[in-house]
């Protein structure tokens, strides 16, 4: 129960933590730093994929549209047809903008975290060592890039190093999503609508939903699994052996 909200218990605390990292909320009712390692992994995964699970709050809907464009391109390759969405042809430009908005923030989360764990200025902010310390740093940058605002709170981030790098992460995280979204909107607005026929891949059936979910999970897993294996997954294995941080 350490760090949990007593009025709601463990289940209520974890549920709120999951929801607040699914959207650009940032409110907490418990200390994320006190969550079990795999619980923290879920929180960080939600942030890493761009908080797209529910959308609606913040820019989750924009993030989901990026994944939809990527999914439509994969579907187009499978059926041998130029991808379409909402009656508009999707070309290399829309694909490049969607990939930029999805991959660049995720990559920079790893780059900034790597810099932090490589410099004394980054390590001095840690209150926990080893795998849990890596999770604290990783969560801090993921939260800033994802425009969330929550934190593991075990990291002393009020230093010159973290103030500058976390502030830069927030700045990049906002514009690296907004600019490609506006570029895609402008490109699609300039295109005419194409008629939907029997060879068009529908985006309203269960098959497309399953493909979209799979793309979100696979992109997130391929991007973050290596660092998760050194952070929350390794901490979980340590925990099974009786070692805590």
Explain this structure.
By secondary structure, this protein is an all-alpha fold. Helix content is 64%, strand content 2%. It has nine helices and two strands; from the N terminus they run H-H-H-E-E-H-H-H-H-H-H. The chain has helices at residues 9-22, 37-48, 60-79, 92-118, 120-123, 130-145, 160-189, 206-230, 232-240; strands at residues 84-85, 88-89. The longest helix is centred in the C-terminal third of the chain and has 30 residues, at 160-189.
The average pLDDT is 88
Low-confidence stretches: none
Domain count: 1
- What is the terminal-to-terminal distance? 16 Å
Tell me briefly what this model is.
This protein is an all-alpha fold. Helices cover 64% and strands 2% of the residues.
List keywords for this structure.
2% strand; 9 helices; two-stranded antiparallel sheet; 245 residues; mainly alpha; 64% helix
Please render the helix and strand layout as text.
Elements: H1 9-22, H2 37-48, H3 60-79, E1 84-85, E2 88-89, H4 92-118, H5 120-123, H6 130-145, H7 160-189, H8 206-230, H9 232-240
Antiparallel strand pairs: 1-2
Helix pairs in contact: 1-2, 2-6, 2-9, 3-4, 3-8, 4-6, 4-7, 6-7, 6-9
